[in-house]
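In the current project phase, work has continued on tokenised descriptions of protein folds. One protein thus recorded appears below exactly as we store it.

——
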Amino acid sequence: MNSDNLPTTVGELRELAAGTDLDAAVAARAALVRLAGSQTTEVATAAAEALAATSIALEPARIDFGPVSPGTPRLSASVAVLGSPAALSSRLKVTGPGLRARLAGDQLQIEWAPGERALTGMISLDGPAGAADLPVTGHLSVASAGVPGAHLGLSSAGGADLLFGQSGFGSAAGADLPGGHLGSDSGGDADLLGFGLSGTAAGLPGADPGPSSAGGADLPGGHHGFGSGGGADLLGRGSGGGADPPGGGRLRFGSGEGADSAAAGGLGGGGGVGRSWRSITARAPRPARRVKGLIIAGAAAVALLGGTGIAAAVTFTGTSSSPSFVPSSPSSGPSPSASSVAPSAPTSPPAGPASSDRPAVEGTIRVGDEPEGVAVSPDSRTVYVANQNSRILSVVDLASRKVRSVTLRNTPRFVTVAPDGRRVFVSMYENDLSGSGVAVVDAPSLKVVGNLKTGVQPYALSVAPDGRLWVPIHGGRNVEIYSAAALRLTARVFVPENPHAVAFDTDGRRAFTPDHESSTVSVIDVRTDKRLRSIPVSTAPHSLAVSPDGRTVVVACFGANAVELIDTTTLQRRGPFRVGQKPQAAAFATDSGHAYAVNEAGNSVSVIDPRTGRTTATVPVGRSPRTMAVSPDGRFAYVSNGDDDTISVLRVS
């Protein structure tokens, strides 16, 4: 080749080096190495840039687990593996007491079992995309008082530290990660290791078999449930228990308050024979009940240190933008308790009609096939309904009862509307958890103007008073937060598994999310995007709502046939209060005088007095009701009936 052709050749080699053909990528990188030594400055520069772009890199560049209590079973973290696809063929070498690692998709998942020794370890990757080292540190501290468990939200600064919570988690039924571990602290290669019988590791070099347990908790932060004993059964979502911090940052685990961990099986027992972690494929979570395609997560009460490193991007029609992650401000110590942060001041109930003790059904409106999520426009004139089986968003004009349809890219699940009513957001995913994202619909034109690529299984999303979009990621144990205008991913808040919904207090200072499989409600500081604490509630909280006066949170506990009430000032809970069977959704009247629970298995809506917890009425609706939205004018509520393909119209005032 002559010098005139070299720049073009560099471009072609860069494409090959970034491709999925491993042999071609290796050969292309070798050629780029030679060209990087060219006497032609332009060629050498282009080749060096191509090598840098396709070389393996780790984000963040180091991990510090910080101070942890002696006897902590395990901590986990996840690091993004960047570069060309060839980087995922790297060999792993792990050194450091109690340190283990494995590659899962484009994530390097890391565990540390502290034992009685501090950690100064190293994880090295070496392969066709070059080499990278990840320093990992951690030290022991005096065990702090508090509830055993390990869940604390992110506290971070741009490009700096990400802070997770106090370790010291406990489990009522055995060890974390029964069944084996990838990686080794002996320095051997450890990028493939299967699980053997009874929770022991398949005998490959470098393996460290985990403790056998018939009912141990799931891998903290992971999604690899070789389920026996009712454990979590979310397989291979390409992430671990850590954050997804910005480039150049350092992942650090520190002290803070924990959360309960109750008995539930995950990776353990007698299942999972001879499985290679690399062979795991994603599949849907175990359904507690499935009606016409609805996936309902199981009610295993287990609180796990959680997170996902799933990349997030925004793709608008005709444009594409790269992921953006702006962490919150740093913390120099333990995360504050709820009492250390000024609670939101309850406001006077908004003006509007008085809600009724006994709402009446005034009729039904036929929509698409298997309606799930429902939302009402700010002017109370339009209802939006996400129809799962027909892949459409139904748009109901309430004055004319005319129904229009917006076709969506993937199966719609839940829907919310921006405060100005101009944009509608619809969470989507398939039953096999592919196609996870959020459709952005322009309300005036009813056109899909963009699709956000989110973490696995986005659930009941909501727009905060400040205009930001909050998306609970059921499969990732975190809530993704998108900026109001550009819809760029700006933060993640990690919570116990698995967040189902999000609601905000009146002044937008705090958010609440039900952690379905952990049986807790997480309280999040909206100003810092940090989880303050988690409040234990009854089994399998599926949804919640905050009263418009800001005083009360009602929580629909699917597995307990009950609701719980939380005082937003004291964060004290009341209940459980019995309602109908399998309450899936919660809502509030606009005057805060009544709360509602949608009972999916009872084909009814329970009306609750939030002062006493007493049910004032049980209103029959359609078959398999799913969600409920109250119109902002306070006059009507709308319930989606999944098996009837209708919404019920309730006069609530």
Observations:
- DSSP finds three helices and 43 strands in the chain.
